[in-house]
Every structure is written in C-alpha cells, then in structure tokens.
Design goal:
Blueprint lengths: L8 H52 L3 E8 L5 E4 L5 E2 L2 E5 L15 E6 L6 E4 L3 E4 L11 E7 L4 E7 L5 E3 L9
Antiparallel strand pairs: 1-2, 1-4, 1-7, 3-6, 4-5, 6-8, 8-9, 9-10
Subcellular location: Cell inner membrane
Keywords: Cell inner membrane, Cell membrane, Membrane, Methylation, Transmembrane, Transmembrane helix
Organism: Chromobacterium aquaticum
C-alpha cells in the first residue's frame, strides 16, 4: 500500500474558508486601526509645523503666525481664511514683514504651508490664528488646544500647545466633543 502526502481538496477548501472568516472578522478592527494611525500621522505633521514656526520665531527674533489656509480649488494659496476656527484646508505659517505686529498675511511672507487632504482631516482651533513671539512662546503665554478630527472614522485627538510653544500629541479617542 502506498502512502500519500499532501492535502485533499476538501482540506484545502476548509483551511481557506477558516482564513477568510478570520479576515472578515478582523477587517473592521484593522480599518479603524489604520484610520487612527492616519490621524496620528496628521497630528505629527501639524506638530512639525508648530515646531517649525516656533523655531523660525526664535531664529529670526520676530513673531511668526499660524492661520487656517485659504486655498483655491487648484490648491493655490490665497492667504489666511478670515474668522475661521475650523481649519480644514491646511495651515499657513508666515512672518508679517511690514505689518508692525498686526499679523496680517500678504504675499511673499509664507514660511510654510501644510495642506490637508480634502475630507480626511478637520482641525478645530479656539482662535483664528496662533502667534509665536520672538522668544518662542505663544502670544500672552497662553496655551492652545487643537482638536484634530477624522470625518471618515469619527475619531479625534487633541494636540495641546503649552504657553512655552511646545506641542503635545494626545491619544486617539472615539468620543469627540461636538
């Protein structure tokens, strides 16, 4: 009598069915995990802009401002979005060269622009703009709280900027404030 090695067709189909079932059960959790990682990645990019703006304020011994970017459909920068506390297009970092401390953007003052992918991120800030003073601190030494939300997953995280101008990225949560 000959001995056989290998799998029968029924054994292979059963193993494949078990793997597909496990994949179907894991997919929603994996999707949520990937969206949370994407939100963390966006928060790190925003923290990078905050670090850059603070560094430019210290290096240039001048105020540096951050505001909600006002972009055309082709993503061409138009300046700051006026009276917006929801920053959903991106962040503009600029140094007001001729304004005498008014913090009004006009062309050729851009230091950095971070553009958000449409519909992937919404950021709520309690003010229309943030200002890093020449000493690297936020204006009036008051901290700021930036709430980053993922409209796709309903998750959010809080990025806190201390009065000294240092950002701290919080944890991803599913219970976002309204």
């Amino acid at each position: 009598m000959r001995s056989q090695s290998g799998f029968t067709l029924i054994e292979a189909m059963t193993a494949l069915a078990v793997m597909l079932l496990c994949l179907a059960l894991a997919a929603p959790g994996l999707s949520r995990f990937l969206l949370a990682q994407q939100l963390r990645s966006h928060a790190q990019a925003v923290a990078g802009v905050l670090h850059y703006a603070r560094g430019e304020a210290l290096r240039g011994n001048r105020p540096v401002y951050l505001c909600a970017a006002n972009l055309k459909r082709n993503l061409q920068l138009q300046g700051c979005a006026r009276q917006r506390q929801v920053w959903d297009a991106g962040i503009l970092a600029y140094a007001d060269r001729g304004g005498g401390g008014t913090g009004a953007y006009d062309s050729q003052e851009r230091l950095h622009l971070l553009v958000f992918a449409a519909g992937k991120l919404r950021m709520r800030v309690g003010r229309d703009q943030l200002q890093f003073m020449a000493n690297g601190r936020l204006e009036r030494g008051q901290g700021a709280r930036l709430l980053l939300e993922s409209p796709l997953s309903g998750q959010c995280l809080t990025l806190t900027v201390s009065g000294h101008g240092r950002p701290d990225i919080g944890e991803v949560r599913g219970d976002c404030p309204a």
